[in-house]
Amino acid sequence: MKTENRTPAWLPFLPLDVPAELTEPAQVAAFELSQVEDLRAELRPDPDLPEEAYELLAEGGATIVRGGRTGMLYGAYALLAAHAAGTPLPTGVRKPFYPARMINCWDNMDGSVERGYAGRSLWFEGERFDYDPVRIRRLGRLLASCGINVLCVNNVNVHWPAQQLIDGMLPDLAAFAGLLRPFGVRLMVSVDFSQPMSDGVPTADPLDSAVQAWWAARADRVWAAVPDLYGFLVKADSEHRPGPFTYGRSHAEGANMLARAIAPHGGTLVWRAFVYNCMQDWRDTKTDRPCAAYDTYAPLDGQFDGNVILQVKNGPFDFQVREPVSPTFFAMPRTNLALELQLAQEYTGQQIDLYAMPPMWDELLADLPPERVCAVAAVSNLGRDENLFGHPFAALNLYAFGRYAWDPAPRAETVIAAWVSLTYPGMPAEDRGRLAQILLCSRHAYELYNAPLGLCWMVSPNNHYGPSPDGYEYQAWGTYHKANRDAVGIDRTAAGTGYTEQYPEPLRSRYADPATCPDELLLFFHRLRYDFVMRDGRTLIQRIYDDHFEGFALTEKMAETLRALPLPEPDRAVALARMDLQLKNAREWCDIINTFFRRLSGADDAHGRKIWD
Ligand code: GCW
């Protein structure tokens, strides 16, 4: 078997390509099951089960996969995974917690991927669709095997000619949709709110009848070409994108206009809540970026149509290493909300540094009851690289996202262990345990050398890799830490910017008091003097030094363990080369941030370690 023919990531136990002529999920399921010699399985369609549900039943030495239309495929993958890993079969009827389990691909039609760290786009190049259908079917298989069912094909920043996806390129969109359909994956398209204006309509005002008519007619054409399109995704009035604010209209008016155009076709309108002032004057102390989403959307609760989903990033800033849960989730009980996560490791190591996300999601779930949202979305970490993810271990984050989207229960250890077993079945059990351990602690190590105590935005501007303590300090993005010789952080309590007031209890009180605020978020919510004494008795400045040194030391340990693991090639070579880069990056973060704070504060390290003057 040639490596480039291998389905990467967690399906190495079945390195096969699904034949092009199979068009129904049940046919794919039957084919998958038929490929495993020592497995006796039978599919049993059950129209009484929900479409995506399944049940595995042992019957006379065989396993019956009872399921709805796509459920049979999900059941087949669950059976194959249990068979490969030697784990017990899941019991009872299984169905996904969230009906929409989406990935948002920030792929541009020129072939680049915004914040992509796994190579160029898998399906766009040269301003058009350009892909290997065999690879796209493998992708479909990968997505179905972890339960993801919606893929947004283009960047939320809609750059020309992506407007053509709902115009002249509809036949190509339809062909692409056809490749993923057998895997139960539906497409979504990011649309440009001002598109009617490029077609002779003088305005994009959502209350203008010509605009409404344009979108309704466009929706008719789009759904005629792709009848099962999931919907449109919109980034409006955000980072210079067009939107309803231009016309003095609210985001409910903007979203509802599009939602009404696509409602007759069963379409869903996913509207992103990533709206803030990206032209802020750093001297302005009244505006506090984390307040923005709540301030914009909470007053609109109850005004969105039933087929609108408001997609909210997990934290109030922008996918930083650690953020508190966004208060918007608690402020809109009468609105369909989706949680947006970022698998692309923009601020979390760029698929060079290890950063396994399940521990972060477990923490998020501790504060955000899963039923607060009705859907989940994640920014994709996929690309054209041979292993699809840049770093072979970055595949874990997509796999885990699919698992959490099916069943949003905290279980980082179990999911990581399952991924390791499925991905490296040939490795001895102790080595798999060691790898799982590295992954489990990777986020902690990264956070310690990069951004401990809730310190955000000390990252290099634009490319967002590597340290630059003042890089975002005097910029227009609302990203300030305000470190001076005495103190660091922003007071976000009622006495400061008032951000903590956006939370319901008990979160509000917990965050507002430095005595109860978790250490990891202390500098997110508070401005503290360097001699502030932490719960563990250390001063704040000592903790800053200690955490950075500890993060680097932990990374060195991870590297040592990794080097000793019998990983198969080519994964081993890629993982080791990237670990060398991570060590360099960790050293830079540790030294530069500690030097920055020492120069400002003049405080010595209690342990006399090397910090530069
Ligand atoms: O963090 C920012 C990213 C942008 C991205 C934006 C968003 C797609 O740096 O690259 O644009 O978030 O989420 O819209």
Describe the structure.
Helix 15 (540-563) runs antiparallel to helix 16 (571-601). The chain starts with 24 loop residues before the first helix and ends in a 12-residue tail after the last helix. The strands form 4 sheets. Strands 4-7-8-9-10-11-12-13 form an 8-stranded parallel β-barrel. Strands 1-3-2 form a 3-stranded mixed beta sheet. It has helices spanning 25-34, 71-85, 133-146, 170-180, 209-225, 251-262, 292-297, 328-331, 358-367, 395-406, 412-423, 429-450, 507-512, 522-525, 540-563, 571-601, and strands at 41-45, 54-59, 62-67, 100-104, 124-125, 128-129, 150-152, 186-190, 231-234, 268-272, 308-313, 337-342, 375-379, 487-488, 528-529. It is built from 16 helices and 15 strands. The longest helix has 31 residues, at 571-601. Helix 4 (170-180) links the parallel strand 7 (150-152) and strand 8. The site of 4-O-methyl-beta-D-glucopyranuronic acid has 8 residues, from loops.
